[in-house]
């Protein structure tokens, strides 16, 4: 059943439901018509009994009205039509019996009304009856009509259901055909939506929104790949140039050392860039398992500050740490990496003192690294955490624009957020549970 097309399954389900409904409706009609015919027959017997009761009490002979009716007065001993027990019961009150075969009706079934009457000879029972032939013929005709018309009605309803199911599923088929044509080579292609504001339109809208997200993700992947290629090309070109110059002509030991130092710097840049790309890709896809542990925030900031103390001292900069006594749960290595990226950015591109701060607020801990520089340009803020984004697009150097992207990825991996505020960046993380 599950392998059948949806349209056919809907039609079969509709046909089954209609069959049950038609069968129940036919049975109800048959029973109600039969009860109505019987009720009409009983009313006729009651009327005949009332009309013949005076004749029965006076002892005058009863008049037969036809082959399909009968009337007679029966003594307490009964006769071939009614039994003594039925007579005794009728003397207590009128009641109706049916006979499967009545001789007066040439063996056809009949319905008899037994009514007590008082005669000069004592209590007697007036019996009036009518043949059930007409009722049976009417019910037989109705049954035949139901048995013939029911399947025809079911066939017509099933055909209509098949057509209606096709019409209802036509937008789905159109979306399916359009989905076969959607590819990465045709950006912006979307599924057609039906005019009716129904569930199918909601499905199409949801699928189009999914295509929007996939297209955005694909575009980010393409941009990421292009930017990564560009960033890798620059140090590779410089490295190639240094090596070619070193091999082109004999050089003094000092020149050789200078060339090797320059090549080593470019190799180190390539290594750090490759490491950052790998970390960012793993964090973005959730492939780096976090080794969560309780971390004292003040110790975390002190560790990061000690790592950059010598570099800050060489450039005449100061590192200040201010942290409240709060504990969070996270991966210490990744958090040190994120904070280290922020301090590195401040030392490279900021000015004045670099301040590492931490405080608790509303069930979270805020980690902030800021300096006394002018801060990020306003136009850069919406793109601050995108890979390979820089405040100054013309500025090159050792930075590949991955530091803030890694910060945001680390924060997200810890169910937190990162935001730029002025000349600093704040990371909000949940505290230890």
- Strand coverage percent: 15-25%
Radius of gyration equals 49 Å
Please report the distance between the alpha carbons of the first and last residues: 51 Å
Secondary-structure-based class equals alpha+beta
Give the H and E element order.
Answer: HEHEEEHHHEHHEEHEEHEE
- Stretches where pLDDT is under 50 for at least 5 consecutive residues are 394-398
What is the count of structural domains?
3
CATH C-level class of the largest domain: Alpha Beta
CATH architecture of the largest domain: 2-Layer Sandwich
Mean pLDDT: 82
List the topology elements.
Elements: H1 6-58, E1 69-74, H2 84-92, E2 95-99, E3 110-119, E4 122-131, H3 133-181, H4 199-248, H5 253-284, E5 292-296, H6 297-307, H7 309-314, E6 319-323, E7 327-331, H8 332-349, E8 354-361, E9 364-370, H9 403-413, E10 417-421, E11 424-430
Parallel strand pairs: 6-8
Antiparallel strand pairs: 1-4, 2-3, 3-4, 5-7, 8-9, 9-11, 10-11
Helix pairs in contact: 1-3, 4-5, 5-9, 6-8, 8-9
Summarize the structure.
The chain is an alpha+beta fold and 433 residues long.
């Amino acid at each position: 059943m599950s392998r059948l097309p949806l349209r056919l399954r809907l039609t079969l389900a509709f046909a089954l439901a209609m069959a049950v409904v038609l069968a129940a409706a036919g049975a109800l009609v048959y029973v109600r018509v039969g009860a109505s015919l019987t009720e009409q027959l009983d009313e006729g017997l009651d009327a005949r009994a009332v009309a013949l009761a005076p004749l029965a009490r006076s002892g005058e002979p009863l008049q037969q009205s036809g082959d399909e009716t009968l009337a007679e007065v029966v003594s307490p001993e009964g006769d071939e039509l009614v039994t003594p027990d039925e007579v005794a019961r009728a003397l207590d009150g009128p009641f109706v019996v049916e006979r499967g075969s009545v001789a007066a009706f040439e063996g056809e079934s009949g319905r008899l009304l037994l009514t007590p009457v008082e005669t000069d000879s004592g209590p007697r029972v007036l019996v009036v009856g009518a043949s059930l032939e007409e009722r049976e013929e009417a019910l037989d005709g109705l049954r035949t009509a139901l048995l013939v018309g029911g399947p025809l009605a079911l066939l017509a309803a099933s055909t209509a259901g098949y057509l209606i199911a096709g019409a209802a599923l036509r937008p789905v088929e159109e979306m399916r055909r359009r989905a076969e044509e959607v590819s990465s080579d045709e950006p912006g292609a979307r599924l057609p939506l039906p005019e009716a504001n129904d569930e199918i339109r909601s499905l199409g809208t949801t699928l189009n929104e999914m295509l929007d997200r996939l297209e955005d993700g694909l575009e980010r992947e393409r941009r990421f790949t292009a930017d990564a290629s560009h960033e890798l090309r620059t140090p590779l070109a410089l490295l190639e140039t240094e090596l070619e110059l070193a091999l082109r002509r004999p050089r003094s030991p000092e020149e050789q050392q200078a060339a090797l130092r320059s090549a080593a710097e470019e190799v180190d840049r390539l290594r750090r860039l490759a490491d950052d790309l790998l970390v960012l890709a793993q964090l973005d896809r959730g492939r780096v398992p976090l080794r969560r542990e309780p971390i004292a925030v003040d110790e975390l900031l002190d560790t990061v500050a000690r790592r950059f103390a010598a570099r800050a001292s060489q450039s005449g900069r100061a590192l200040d740490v201010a942290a409240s006594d709060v504990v969070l749960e996270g991966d210490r290595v990744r958090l040190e990496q994120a904070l280290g990226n922020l301090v590195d950015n401040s030392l490279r591109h900021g000015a004045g003192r670099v301040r590492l701060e931490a405080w608790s607020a509303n069930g979270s801990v805020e980690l902030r690294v800021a300096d006394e520089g002018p801060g990020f340009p306003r136009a850069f803020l919406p793109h601050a955490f995108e890979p390979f984004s820089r405040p100054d697009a013309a500025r090159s150097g050792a930075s590949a624009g991955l530091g803030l992207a890694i910060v945001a990825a680390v924060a997200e991996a810890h169910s937190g957020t990162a935001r730029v505020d002025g000349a600093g960046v704040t990371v909000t993380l949940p505290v230890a549970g």
